[in-house]
Amino acid sequence: MTDFPDHSERRRFLKRVASAGLAIAASRLTACAGTASPPVSSSPSPGNDPARSTSATGTRGELDTVTIRHASGSSAEIAIQGAHVTSWKRTNGEEMLFVSANSRFAPGQPIRGGIPVVFPQFAALGPLPGHGFLRTATWEVADVSRDPNGAAFALFQVRDTDAMRTLWPHPFRATLRVTLDDALATAITIENVGDDAFPFHCALHTYLRVGDLTKVSIRGLEGATYQDRRAKNAQRRESRRPLRIEGETDRLYVGRPERLRIRDESLGRTVFVDRIGFNDVVIWNPGEERARTSTGLAEGEYLTMLAVESAQVVPPVQLAPKSRWTGVQRMLVG
Ligand code: TA6
Fold first, then answer.
1. What is the per-residue pLDDT across 198-224, written as a single tens digit (0 to 9) for each?
2. Model confidence over 2-14: pLDDT tens digits?
3. What is the largest CA-CA distance in the chain?
4. What backbone phi and psi angles, to 5 degrees, belong to 105?
5. pLDDT for the residue numbered 54
6. Atom 13 (ligand 1): residue with closest C-alpha?
7. Ligand 1 interacting residues, C-beta cut-off 6 A
8. What is the CATH number of the domain that holds 296?
């Protein structure tokens, strides 16, 4: 399993993923403008077993999906609506992401779980629908293949539509690249294709599957400043080392780009989360009461999920015309 002993090596990897996403996005966006989604391909590269490294299209509920597989046996499923990662399985078949049994996988419906894309507004911090409009938008598949390192990847893209412009009048292009090897990296790029600068929030609202929430600890937020979203955004400092979830929790940790370590004692595993571009972290669990009243989660599911979100909210990104911004999240199991 690849781990990164030093910080600079980690950052080099993340930058590679980000620039691969950008380069492919740039070429494909031109190539794919106005065309239908290309067929899903599987191109073997030297050193990998092609039989174990395929990609496929499918459906989940009413939604079309793309599944990518790495030669190691890991896999990821992405719903094309929302470019929404709905499953990440390790080599041993273990599912890493939580998806509620009540999720409907229907057009226009947000999925409760996986990795929803949040853009251009986080939560209700503005006039738009909660978490913006990309999580239910119609994306298209720009590419599915393998990179020169043997990692499987899928690239999705979306442009502003008339419907989006009635809500938010800024021309943009977004690409999401999901890269799979023994880790799962998700890179989102926002491009300002208009003539005026615009501000936005962006987040990857990642729902981790946990065995027992009460046995989970989070390291990497010690001493961080956070906005307590349960208490009118009161500003506080994290004093717990490590952080454990005790009841409903909804916190926006500001300016905290360091690696996170999420230890799940009941499943005996640790997830490392590295980020670039996303300087904020949101930790969310609805707790028992809110899980029942307002999230649509099935009975007891709140104990098997923890949202650990890579975010850029404070401050919002200010994107100049003809410029791009990229945020990357990479998760690895230790
Ligand atoms: O990211 C945390 C949060 O904004 C919470 O406040 C909670 O509402 C959650 O996201 C889910 O939002 P959703 O719009 O999917 O119900």
1. 999 999 999 999 999 999 999 999 999
2. 334 345 555 555 5
3. 55
4. 50, 55
5. 76
6. 130
7. 110, 123, 130-131, 205, 229, 250, 282, 284, 307, 309
8. 2.70.98.10
What's at 23, amino acid-wise? A
Domain assignment present for residue 2? The answer is no
Distance CA 134, CA 126 (A): 15
216-219 and 183-192 beta bridge pairing: unpaired
**Count of domains forming the chain:** 1
Atom of ligand 1 nearest to the CA of 203: 1
CA 42 to chain centre: 23
* Closest residue CA from atom 4 of ligand 1: 123
Q: Is residue 275 part of a domain?
A: yes
Give the residue, by CA position, lying nearest to ligand 1 atom 10: 123
Q: Hey, is 254 helix, strand or coil?
A: coil
In ligand 1, which atom is closest to the CA atom of 309?
1
Domain that holds residue 146: 7-34+42-333
Q: In this prediction, what percent of the chain has a pLDDT beyond 70?
A: 84
**Mutate-to-test residue for ligand 1 from 112, 134, 245, 250, highest number of ligand atoms within 8 A of CB:** 250
Test site for ligand 1: of 99, 233, 284, most ligand atoms within 8 A of the Cβ? 284
